[in-house]
Amino acid sequence: MSQARSTRVSSHRSGNARADETTDAADETETMDEADRCPECSGRTRIESAERVCTDCGLVVDADLIDHGPEWRSFDDDDTNPKRTGAPLTRSRHDRGLSTEIGQSTRVKGRKRRRLSRMRTQHNRAQISTKRDRNKVYAYTEIRRLTGALELPNNIRDTACTLFDSAQSESLLRGRSLEGFACACVYVACRTADVARTVGEVCAEAKATEDEHQAAFDAMNRELGLPIGPASPAEYLPRFASELDCEQGVEQRARELVDRAVEEGIANGRNPVGVAAACLYTAARQCSADVTQQEAADVADVTPVTIRRTYVDLTDGE
């Protein structure tokens, strides 16, 4: 009889424990349901693109959720090696940067080092198998060297490489210098991006002469229809003013003189670089700034006579 009483007590305690567990689970489910429900229509919500959105009414319940998971994703189901990135694609490589390279190391010696050297040679030959690719590699290398020497941004480099690719596709390279095309492409890229660089400055760093540059530029302008017009003297004012250490008022006055020179036809048929330097010199004289004709001529790479002629035309009748 006492054994039956003990059995009933145990069953009662077990029933109470199961009831408590059921109550706790129900409370937890109710709490989770309240957190996952829409405050407007009580619909279910789900997370999409760092936002908690109601599936019924479309209300954005919460935004800018923080993902506490790892930043990488494993595409091959191999969690031991989460690497999946490589070098970015670039226009400054003949193959857009998709190829691989065999590097050089001093840690290998003897027969293995000679074998790697032969593999490197064969690998390079396989990547550059045609004359077209060799020309492109050489020109792209020259463009990268030029943009680096002129301290130009990467967008200028990529634009210049795209221009060379277009010129090669139109068969404009035959009978002309690759160095000249590289120089012309960098100059045109500067002009299209409103970066003030003169032909003399680009040719001074290039391996091409000004005649080779002009031949390549004329061919591209004729066949490709380059989207550039005559250079404006105003493009060179900020750089010249910075090199001459002029104040803002002098630069502003020089800009007004440039507008006047263009309107009155003083700038017609003249080197825009010389016109910009002459306007800056004239503005400095009017603002009592210490700038000489020789200093203005040096920054523009022109002669003082060029500065003097434009200065006389600007001050004539004043």
From TrEMBL:
Any GO MF annotation of the entry: zinc ion binding
InterPro entries listed in its UniProt record: Cyclin-like_dom, Cyclin-like_sf, TFIIB, TFIIB_arc, TFIIB_cyclin, Znf_TFIIB
Any GO BP: transcription preinitiation complex assembly
UniProtKB keywords: Metal-binding, Repeat, Transcription, Transcription regulation, Zinc, Zinc-finger
Family affiliation: Belongs to the TFIIB family.
Organism domain of life: Archaea
A GO-annotated cellular component: transcription preinitiation complex
PANTHER family named among the record's database cross-references: TRANSCRIPTION INITIATION FACTOR IIB, TRANSCRIPTION INITIATION FACTOR IIB-RELATED
Function: Stabilizes TBP binding to an archaeal box-A promoter. Also responsible for recruiting RNA polymerase II to the pre-initiation complex (DNA-TBP-TFIIB).
Sequence repeat start and end residues: 141-224, 235-316
The protein's name in its UniProt record: Transcription initiation factor IIB
SUPFAM superfamilies: Cyclin-like, Zinc beta-ribbon
Acidic residues bias spans: 22-33
Residues binding Zn(2+), per UniProt: 38, 41, 54, 57
Keyword Nucleus among UniProt keywords: no
Residues annotated as domain TFIIB-type: 34-62
Alphabetical list of SMART domains matching this protein: CYCLIN (SM00385)
Start-end of Polar residues biased regions: 1-14
Region (Disordered): 1-39, 71-100
